[in-house]
Fold this protein.
Amino acid sequence: MEGDLKPMFRPRAPRYFEAAVALGIALFGCSVTQLGATDPDLAKARSKVAAGGEAYNRECAACHGQRGEGLASSPAVMGPSALPLYTRDPKTSTNPALQDPAEQQRDQNLPAGADTRGAFENAADLYRYVSREMPLPRSKAGSLKPEEYWAIVNYMLVAHGLSVPEGGVNEGNAASVPLR
């Protein structure tokens, strides 16, 4: 019987294969980035700006996500890569089928390469855009009270991980609050 048993031999994968698998797993793990606001920043925003969180959830989250991560054709508004200084390129961030026809018409009337949104350099830029262009559809844009827009902007900034002045961002100090 002992002679009938063959030694269990399993060919070993070459070392370079093992190294490639390990590298792939490491790269995949490193490439996964949190979308939207982090849990600690969201918790801070909810506690500091409760009214802004309620207004954001009611008016913004359906398009931009609960974490501000961006959904469908709507851009991220909180977290990494949100609120960039550079202007938004509608050709790469919107789906024409989902875009507001009035916005499409406005953008078509602009000269080639024209700025469709403007850069968000400070909280005043963000407030100016949000209070003029949101919420969508276009027929609802600008329909909130100024204090609701300020609450939403404050909530977004805190959830984005930025510091806001004591008492929050308002018309008097918004230009001095950078979005970096």
